[in-house]
Design brief:
heterodimer, A: 347 residues, 13 helices, B: 147 residues, alpha/beta, five-stranded parallel sheet, 5 helices
């Protein structure tokens, strides 16, 4: 029936999905990023701040709370929507290369940037679906604002991805390169893309997209807790709320590691040669270089979180929804467009 | 093991929901000072939640007027178990200077079980933090008793 090789591959992929680039990795590192963000914001406001492990406590506490399903809610959608959003984020994490490590090494064409673009929409849609299913008026307001936020962020994100694809394509002489592993391979050979003139505005635009996409502070009109009671999450309690909080944390990891793959992909790829230079070979060397690459990725993600999420949170006040939309479609889109034009002329 | 983890976490991540039941605003300002940089209750995990569905501890201020009684009780019912009710200031505890007024329905303990009373008009932030920490211990006990 099942051959041994098939069983082995199945187990390997199960491990990928559940443990390393998949669920457990996302869970631990995502919540850790969230905790570091809260601590950093507190220190910037001259507070002591919660412990770094606070998001873990919050998540486990919410798992132990009663889940109240509102009488007006659609029970199935209410309970399933958070899971769909989290699953989509875990799938994206499988497609983002950790420098030289790739889950789908044998299938280079399985997931390019466009698939990631679609998958990034699913968590937002799941929050909207779940919120709309509660029938709460606060969720209604949050729904319309979340939709506007998604629309506002999507245009500059597409332009950034397009300019990255064009830069790599120009350099390799074959049009547009949409494969994320192709982009990282190019950076491993020719140095990180952030070093190119045409990519600097795109990197800046991407830094501004990260807090908008995660719904963090100046761009959190959709879940303004002091104004519309967290909007879409107003009626959620217990474990489903915990899963939404978890997906918010994982989204921070997903977007920062996407930034690393797009612009800083050359930093960690030399580790394998370094490990070989010390004189290590075989399985142990491969494991060591993988661990080192993961460490570099996590460090870069922490730095990016501090810069794009914590610092911006500490120095700004919440934007109104029309200000948010205008900001993204003028400033951020403008930056991305400059980058696209520069890339088109081969700078 | 998982149960123990949840129990520990319940004591370390209490989210507050604040109900003003006809308060003079003195206690409300004092509660805000507990959460802001000077006393920073967030270092113990306290966080102000926007809706009763997210809350663990309900903080009631004010002497519970006839007008607000029904709303207070309905809001408390919407908080998922395990939950704690903390009264802040003397008003919800005894009626304070409003005691005997025709407009007052309090004290709150006539209608729901109150876990912690923080007396004072207004209580000092240190006293409020002390009361809230006592409430988290009760919260942990309640979580242990569940299931």
């Amino acid at each position: 029936m099942f051959s041994l090789a098939f069983l082995q591959t199945a187990l390997l992929y199960l491990g990928y999905i559940l443990i390393f680039p998949g669920f457990l990795f996302c869970f631990v590192i995502g919540l850790l990023l969230c905790g570091i963000d809260r601590k950093a914001v507190a220190r910037m406001q001259k507070r002591v701040g919660p412990p770094i492990l606070q998001p873990f406590y919050d998540f486990f506490k919410l798992c132990g709370k009663e889940t109240i399903v509102p009488a007006a809610a659609n029970r199935t959608t209410f309970m399933l929507a958070p899971l769909v959003g989290l699953a989509a984020l875990v799938v994206i994490q499988l497609f983002i290369p950790v420098f030289n490590f790739r889950v789908f090494r044998n299938l280079p064409e399985v997931a390019d940037i466009i698939v990631i673009l679609y998958l990034l929409l699913i968590p937002a849609v799941s929050v909207m679906l779940g919120g709309a299913a509660t029938g709460s008026p606060y969720a209604g307001v949050g729904l319309s604002r979340e939709m506007v936020t998604v629309l506002a962020v999507e245009l500059p994100l597409v332009l950034v991805l397009l300019s990255v694809a064009k830069t790599v394509g120009n350099a390799l002489g074959n049009g547009l390169v949409f494969s994320l592993s192709g982009i990282v391979d190019f950076q491993a050979a020719h140095g990180s893309l952030i070093g190119r003139v045409s990519m600097i505005p795109a990197a800046l635009a991407m830094l501004l997209i990260i807090p908008g996409e995660t719904g963090n502070h100046p761009f959190d009109a959709a879940e303004a807790e002091t104004e519309i009671c967290e909007g879409l999450l107003a009626e959620y309690s217990g474990a489903p709320l915990g899963i939404y909080k978890l997906s918010h944390a994982v989204k921070m990891l997903t977007l920062t590691s996407l930034f690393v793959a797009l612009f800083l992909g050359g930093i960690g790829t030399g580790v394998e040669h370094l490990v070989a230079a010390i004189g290590l070979t075989g399985g142990f060397a491969a494991a060591l270089s993988l661990i080192l690459q993961v460490l570099i990725l996590v460090l870069l993600c922490i730095v990016l979180t501090l810069v794009t999420i914590s610092f911006v949170h500490a120095v700004t006040a919440r934007l109104k929804i029309e200000q948010l939309f205008k900001y993204y479609w003028t400033v951020v889109t403008g930056l991305a467009l400059i980058s696209l034009v520069l890339a088109w002329y081969g700078y | 093991m998982f149960k123990k983890l949840i129990e520990e976490s319940t004591g370390k991540s209490p989210w507050l929901f604040h109900i003003n039941a006809g308060s003079c605003n003195g206690c409300d300002i004092e509660l805000v000072s507990v959460l802001t940089p000077r006393y920073d209750a967030e270092r113990l995990g306290f966080k102000l939640a926007g809706t009763p569905r997210h809350a663990d501890i309900v903080v009631v201020t004010g002497p519970v007027t006839q007008q607000s009684l029904n709303r207070v009780l309905r809001t408390i019912e919407q908080v998922p178990e395990p939950r704690c009710i903390v009264t802040m200031g003397s008003c919800p505890q005894s009626g304070n200077v409003f005691r005997g007024s025709y407009a007052i329905a309090g004290p709150l303990s006539k209608y729901v079980h109150v876990d912690v009373d923080v007396a004072g008009c207004t209580p000092k932030p240190e006293a409020v933090i002390d009361g809230l920490v006592k409430a988290t211990e009760i919260l942990r006990e309640k979580r242990r008793a569940m299931k």
